[in-house]
Design a protein that fits this description.
By secondary structure, the chain is mainly alpha-helical. Helix content is 62%, strand content 4%.
Length: 544
Amino acid sequence: MSFRLRAVRAFALLVGFFLMGAVLLSAMAVLDWLLMTRLFSARAAWLEGMVVTVTVLLAVAIVRGMVAFLRAGRLGPVPDAVPVAPEDQPELWEQIRAAAEATGQRPPDELYLAVEVNAGVAEHSRLLGLLPGRRRMHLGLPLLAGLTVPQLRAVLAHEFGHYANLDTRLGGVTMRGRAAVTHTVEAFQQGGTRLHFVIGSLYVGYARMFLRTSQSVARHQEFAADRTAARYAGRDTTAAALRVIPVLDGAYVHYLETYAGMGGSQGALPPVGEVHGGFRRLLAARTGERLAELSAGRRPPRPHPYDSHPPTAERVALIEKLPTDDRPDERPDDRSGESADGPAALTLLRDPDRVFAALEERTLSQEAALLPRRSWDDLVMARAVEDADGWSRPLRVAVARALRSSAQGAEGTVPVRRDAAAEDAVNDPLPGLEEILDAIDHGLLWMDVADRMPKPYQASRLTGPSARNFIRPKLFDGLAGLVHLRLVESGHAGPDIGWSGEPGLFLPEPWEKGMDDAIDAAVADTPDTAPLRALLTGPDRVSA
């Protein structure tokens, strides 16, 4: 079946989706008329009233669905994005207008900058998408931070390509109709009555048939939009943009989890404009390969069975089959500043710091907006101390319990229950680094301390080398945490934001080179604390 016939079939089903409500309403009206005039006598008035009541409730649900279908596609308010007028950002608007003109489309009436690694154009369409309306474009600031200007041109051309009459006008209508159908089904899912659910199930079944039938049309539109982007921005540039967007998405998730949310446990936020704007620093510090590592291993979201977007690899493969053009290859590593492939898309913005700050005002909750702001260095240092304390605390509690048990045994006192000893150890001052090293030298590490380290029930059955190998990383982390706390207290360690790696601490050179080996020796099967003590009393003395 040709694309035109598939589009016509999909449009017919779309019209049928609306007409189904009209048919159901007509059938129930005829049923009520028959009940009231022909089928029941006065003696069965109570039954007649009950049936009419049910049909009225069903009619209300159907009318609600029909109204939701007609209202789908209406543009509502956008509270979580920054509106941008042409006079505010003329360079960005110039790129948008140029892409719209090249694809034979009118530019959007509104432009919003959002927080997603995404771009999109929505239209306030009417009459099942046959009549155009006001257009609105969304551009994610993280997307602008990660794309070059040529790549942004490809993205813009792709979005406008959805609305071009690529093969037939019905293709674009079908795309808008899929959104309308989905919106209608969601409206039925919000209903709370049993009758609402019954009518909704009819619409859901019809919607599935329509989405399944129109999926090939929707995917055809995606491929056609890709070809439009390739003609306008270049084949290689379009392919590079498709490849880099999933990488940017994974990198942005990592940034939010690792950096933007760093002060969550401290009740603090990064500097103004840096909650989202700090993503620029991560991009500037990492090459394309290092960025790809951030998304490697992440499970991709399960594709929706009716998703109109084909797999990215399939789209890129089809683009690369297009004839070559005279434009330079687009290298994904060049995303910031000037490059052979063009400047970063973020350079199109005037005063991007102000834009990022405005975006924070619109996206942060009222409670979050009141939190104190700290510099990146202060956030890193506070987080490093918090992490170090968390790593060391289980070891310090286990050593305190072991020392308490050892002292009671030496005095010949009555043994204390293990849970009571644990509670007392937590309440009493916990041992420091030197006390823990002394306990290791006295042979308590594998005889008593390791057994008191927290572990899952299954691991408590392990014995011998298996037990030691299981708990050794926890002992290592505990000693490392104590060392970090000591270095911070003595002023020998400083914050390292680690845009190219992980946030943490700058350690003195002797500790950078020798700490891991020294701690490995201290938690070996035959513990040796001498290397760690030598570092503590070395030229950069950090002993308490």
